[in-house]
From TrEMBL, chain A:
<keyword id="KW-0206">Cytoskeleton</keyword>
<protein>
    <recommendedName>
        <fullName>B9 domain-containing protein 2</fullName>
    </recommendedName>
</protein>
<keyword id="KW-0970">Cilium biogenesis/degradation</keyword>
<comment type="similarity">
    <text>Belongs to the B9D family.</text>
</comment>
<dbReference type="InterPro" id="IPR010796">
    <property type="entry name" value="C2_B9-type_dom"/>
</dbReference>
<keyword id="KW-0963">Cytoplasm</keyword>
<comment type="function">
    <text>Component of the tectonic-like complex, a complex localized at the transition zone of primary cilia and acting as a barrier that prevents diffusion of transmembrane proteins between the cilia and plasma membranes.</text>
</comment>
<keyword id="KW-0966">Cell projection</keyword>
<dbReference type="Pfam" id="PF07162">
    <property type="entry name" value="B9-C2"/>
</dbReference>
TrEMBL record, chain B:
<keyword id="KW-0206">Cytoskeleton</keyword>
<protein>
    <submittedName>
        <fullName>MKS transition zone complex subunit 1</fullName>
    </submittedName>
</protein>
<keyword id="KW-0963">Cytoplasm</keyword>
<keyword id="KW-0966">Cell projection</keyword>
<dbReference type="InterPro" id="IPR010796">
    <property type="entry name" value="C2_B9-type_dom"/>
</dbReference>
<keyword id="KW-0970">Cilium biogenesis/degradation</keyword>
<dbReference type="GO" id="GO:0036038">
    <property type="term" value="C:MKS complex"/>
</dbReference>
<dbReference type="GO" id="GO:0060271">
    <property type="term" value="P:cilium assembly"/>
</dbReference>
<dbReference type="Pfam" id="PF07162">
    <property type="entry name" value="B9-C2"/>
</dbReference>
Amino acid sequence: MAEVHIIGQIVGASGFPRNSLFCKWGIHTGGAWKLLSGLREGQTQVDHPQLDDVAYWSHPIDVHFATKGLQGWPKLHVQVWHQDSFGRSELYGYGFCHLPSSPGWHMLTCTTWQPLGSWQERLSQLFVGGGPQLLQSDLIYTGADRYRLQTIAAGTVHLELAVLLRHFARYGVEC
Amino acid sequence: MVTGRAMAELGWSAEAGGAVYRSRDPVRNLRVRVRIQRVTHASLLLPQLQQPPGQPGPELIGLATLRPPPAASGYRPDDEEEEAVIGWQEKFFSQFEVDLYQHDSACQTPLDRQYHQEILKLEKSGGRKNHRIFTYTDHDRFTNLEEHCQKVTTSVQEVPSYLAERMANLRRRRQDRRPMEGNVPKSRVITWEPSEEFIKNSHVINTPVQTMYIMGDLGPYGKLGHREYEHVLCTIKVDSNGVITVKPDFTGTKGAYRIEVDGEKRELWKYTLENASAQVQPEEEGQEQRMFRDLYSRHKEYLNGLVGSDFEMTLPGALRLFVNGEIVSAQGYEYNHLYVHFFLELPSCWSSPAFQQLSGVTQTCATKSLGEDNVAFFSYPFTLEMFFTQEDESEGSLPQWPVIYFEVLSLDYWQRYRVEGYGSIVLPATPGVHTLTAPTWRPIELGTVSELRRFFIGGSPELEDMTYVRVPGTFKGERLSRFGFRTETTGSVTFRLHCLQQSKAFLDSSAMRKRMQSVLDRLSGFSQQSSLLNVLGEAFSLVSPTRRANCSVCSLHKERRRSRPSPEDSSAFLHLLFLPLCLTLPSDRVSLEMAETLRGRLEFLSG
C-alpha cells in the first residue's frame, strides 16, 4: 500500500468571457484507490473580480489517498460556471488535469472547453445565456467517447498543488 | 530612578529571546529552581559602567589595587544567597505584598482578601520562607500592568500602539474566555453585523496564554519591600497547546545571569534558572511509548484493512512505464475546429497489457484567439502502460523508447477534412512531469492547384504511413532521404505527461541512485557487467577449459589465488593482469569498451 497526499488550492480562473465565476470540482480515481481523509469534491464561492478578468477562489484541496497500484491515478476535474446578475448559472467550461505523480509543488494550468451547440443555440446563448451541457460528467475525465463532441475552447483554471508520496519507493516506483 | 538590566556572560546573546519548549504533559508539573546570589558591588567589577567617569571613588582604587571586596560594608552572609523551587502559578509573596495585605483595609478584590487570609496563615505558621524571590501569578495585577505598559524601545515618550491596546483589552491570558463565534454554523458563513466582542476577538491574534513572573527583590539588606527594587528574573508563558516560553532561558551550561542594580550602591546580582520538574519514571515513559506504538499499529491495521497491504509489482527484470498524459492544446493552425488523432508505437522489447488502448481521437474543438495564436483546448486524458523487457542482455545497443505519433485535422462546417499537421513525441525517459510542445508540418504539392483544392473542397496530400514523421517502420537502408518531399510548417500541439517508472531493479539500486544518472544505466548496469563476465568466461575457457567464470571477477581471483598456480600457468599472468583493473573499475560500470580491450589483451596473451 502506498499513500498520496495532495495539498493545494484552486487558485482561480482566467480567460473566460465574463467574470463572476464559480467552480465545481471533483477527484476521480480508479478502483484500487481509497480516500482516507479529505473531501473528494466541492464547490467554490462566486468571485467578482474588480479589476482584471482573473477570478480568484483560493479554494483548498486537501486529500489523502491510499492505493494498491498505479492504475487509475487521481484526476481532478473542474466545471467552471458563471452566475449572472439574475442569479442564473450557466456553464462556461469543463476541464481536467491529472494530479501530478512526482512529489513537490506544482503550479498547473488546466485548460477548459465548452460544448458547442448549433448556430441557433449559439445565437440564443449570446443573448440570454445558457448553452448545452454534458449529460454524463464522466466525459470530462475519460477520453473514450470524446470524438462525439463538438466543443469550443474556453478559459483556463489555475491550480497549485503540493504532492507528498509515501512508500512508492518501497515498490520500486520512480516518480 | 532605579533601572536594572540583565546581562549575559560574554559570548552568549540568546538571553533576550528566551526559549520555547513544547510539552504534552500537564503544565502544573512544571517546577523552576531559582538561585540568586549577590556577587559584589557592581562598581568594583565594572567601573567603566559608572557614569560620569569623573568621580573616582574609593571603590575604583580598590579595583586598582586588586583588593578583595571589603567585608564590612553591608556584607551579610545570610543575605548573600537564596534558592527557591517554584511551581507553576505558585504564589510567593514579596515583602511589599506581605506589608500591604496584612491589613484588611487595603483589600478590595476577592483576590486581595484571599491573599490576606493566606498571609495571616503564613504568619501563624512562622513567617514566609522566601525573602528576595517571589512571584506574580496570572491573576495578579502586575501581570496586567506589565503587559499593557511594556516598553519596547528606549523612547521616553513611547505610548502603547493601538494594536497593543486592543491586545491588552482582549485580556488574552484568560483561557476560559475563548470566543464562541469561532464555530459558526454552516448555514451562516458570514456575520453581516459583527458584534463588538466578535471584532475584538477576530481582529487580533488570539492564542490564550497564561503568564507567570518570577521576581527578585534586589533591595539592600534591611530595605526589602520597595517596589523600585523589584526585578523580573524570569517570565514564563504557557498557551493551551502546551507551548512553554521561558524568557530568559534556563541557565544550563551557559552560566548565570547578572543583574546590575543602578542604585546608590550599584550592586551586582547573579541568578540561575533550572528546570526542576520531576522527571518521568522510565517505566512510565515505556508504558506511554507502548501505548503510542499500540495506537499506531492499530491505525496501520485499520488502513491495511481498508486498502490492503499489497501493491502490484512488475516481473523481475522488467520496467513498467506508466504515463498519465493529457493533450492540452493545439495552437497556430490555419483552420478552425481541430481534432487530434494519435497512436503509440511500441518498439521491440516493449509490450503493453491487452486492455491498453494505444490510440485515441480527441473531440473537435473550435479555437479562440489567445495572443497572436488561435488555440484549441482539448484537455483530453489518456493513460499508457507498457513494459520493457530486455531479452538479450548481451546486446549492447540502446533500447528504443516508445513514440507517440499524432496528426492534427480540421473539420469544417461542410464536413470537409483537412490535414493540418503531423508530429511526434518520444515519451520522456525520466519520471516526473513533462510538458512537451511538438511542432508540426504538413505535406504540400507544388503549384496552386492543390492549395485551391484544399481551400474549396478540402482534402490535401496525406501521409500513407504516419511513422514517416520519424524513421518509417518499413525502412531498411542506411540513409533516410526525404529529398523531394515538401512540407509547410503549421502549428504545434502541447502534451503534458506525468511519467512513472516501476521496476524491481530500482529496489536494489536505490543506494547507488546518486551515481547512476539515467534509467538505462540502472536497468542495464548489471547486464553490461554480465556481458563482461561472458567475455571473461570465454577468455578463461581458452586458458583452462575446466574452470568456467560463472561468478564475479574478484571471487574468481580469490579462487585462483587459493589454488596457488605455478608461475608458468598463464592464468597467473592473467590474474596479475586483471587485478589492478578489477580494483580500479567500479563494479557496476564496467563498460563494453573495457571488455573489448580485455578481450584484446587476452587474445594477445593466448596468441
